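Comment thread on ticket #2218

A.B. wrote:
> Attaching the input chain for the structure job we discussed in standup.
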Amino acid sequence: MAELEKIVDQLSELSVLEAAELVKLLEDKWGVSAAAPVAVAAVAGMAAAGAEPAEEKTEFDVIIKEPGPKKIEVIKAIRQLTSLGLKEAKDMAETPDGKVLEGAGKEAANDAKSKLEAAGATVEVV
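C.D. wrote:
> Ran it. Output below, let me know if you need it in another format.
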């Protein structure tokens, strides 16, 4: 054990250039690469960082994908959910990917989705 401590002390006295030269000599002698373990450690570190739980989304958009066969019912539902007039609600129902609500809370977005789907529309919450 004392010999290992002596080696550690000697290595601590090396300059950066000497340490790099030592690494190169050891790689040549042993036929290994010091870069591979470092790369594996870096990938493991990134995987651990990526494993952190993502922040929960708090704002949602309610988008009509297709008004469906009961367009009048969908227009009524849009008017109920927004303060749009008849023409604006009709235009929104007929516009592909029309946003009925933007930045709504989770509960409000799910409520709007269920009302629009009950009226016959195909809806997506994002």
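A.B. wrote:
> Thanks. Noting for the ticket: The mean pLDDT is 83.
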